[in-house]
TrEMBL record:
Record-listed substrate binding positions: 137-141, 170, 183, 283
Compartments, record wording: Cytoplasm
Protein name: tRNA N6-adenosine threonylcarbamoyltransferase
Record: residues binding Fe cation: 114, 118, 311
Gene Ontology BP term (one): tRNA threonylcarbamoyladenosine modification
Enzyme Commission identifier(s): 2.3.1.234
Known role: Required for the formation of a threonylcarbamoyl group on adenosine at position 37 (t(6)A37) in tRNAs that read codons beginning with adenine. Is involved in the transfer of the threonylcarbamoyl moiety of threonylcarbamoyl-AMP (TC-AMP) to the N6 group of A37, together with TsaE and TsaB. TsaD likely plays a direct catalytic role in this reaction.
Catalytic activity reported: L-threonylcarbamoyladenylate + adenosine(37) in tRNA = N(6)-L-threonylcarbamoyladenosine(37) in tRNA + AMP + H(+)
Protein source organism: Maioricimonas rarisocia
Amino acid sequence: LPVQYLLAIESSCDETAAAVIDDTLNVRSNIVASQDALHQRFGGVVPEIASRAHVERIMPVIDEALRQADVTLQQLSGIAVVTEPGLVGSLLVGLTAGKTLAWLLDVPLVAVNHIEAHLFACRMAAGRDIFPAVGLVVSGGHSNVYNCRSETDLELLGSTIDDAAGEAFDKVASLLGLPYPGGPSIQRAAENGDPQAFRFPRSFIRDDEIRFSFSGLKTAVLYEAQGIPGRNEQPPDLTPQRIADIAASFQEAVVDVLVAKVQLAVRKLGHRTVCLGGGVAANGRLRERLQQAADENGFELVIAPRELCTDNAAMAAIGWKLLQEGRTAPLDLDVTPGLVR
Ligand code: KG4
Ligand code: ZN
């Protein structure tokens, strides 16, 4: 049988991405146009700026993905496009491009869930079936724990009651005057810091429920960085060492609760495998601590390489699964911005 190619498109947040993946899940190209520079001065993603930038970039990014894969439009067997969850204006740009190409080329269109795609990146990295597994998706928009029965059958076990883990990294970085996106900045600053310097709150860490809260932690950081409002005190001097210590202590607090809840889910479900996806999965300390927990507790940890953790289109290769299951989408397909599962 000749090799078949899938074009995958991802534009759910602030990365414009396209990839070509063959039917053996080989990534032939993986192009990500980051908008970090556009959102930097706002300390977070501005939806209207994001969707406008997607409009400018989507066609060049698709062209580049095809060029690097050395594949023509006519060779494509299908189009996979991320349609949920995400920013509505951003999602619509990718969907419109995907629909147009599917209609023009008369190939099937499949709708990909961004969260499922993040966890599918682990399946791709493993090169074999990894399910059933506990799945943790930690990104700018989500901190979700799943019972993954298969790549397309996820049950949400719990999530955050306020900020997402990545959002906390971004906000704390902004409080400390570190550049956006906050995750990589905090990780870098933390390298020179003492993770025990500040004892920050670890919400829900000991209870028996799978849930997260990061807003108390964020406030605790605010007080250490800028002083307690209303108190007639000179705010502490934010020296590079103090910034590093706060960053390291904050990172340790986030990692502590994420590791604890993964272990809780492993105990509750009895799965032997844990997979980790989303931008925060690129965090070195989290990867290290989860690996330790895996070694101590006898579960297997599967994490994608860093470039497949942050948003990308290669992970939308889960579209091959959907195609095989005959789950193609009609051309009047719409986006679903909210998290449904
Ligand atoms: O998955 P992703 O690229 O986009 C969303 O779906 O949200 O995740 C982006 C988030 C941002 O909040 C960013 O600060 C965080 O992932 N992030 C990290 C690291 N790299 C990216 N957080 C902690 N450590 C990192 N190394
Ligand atoms: Zn994501």
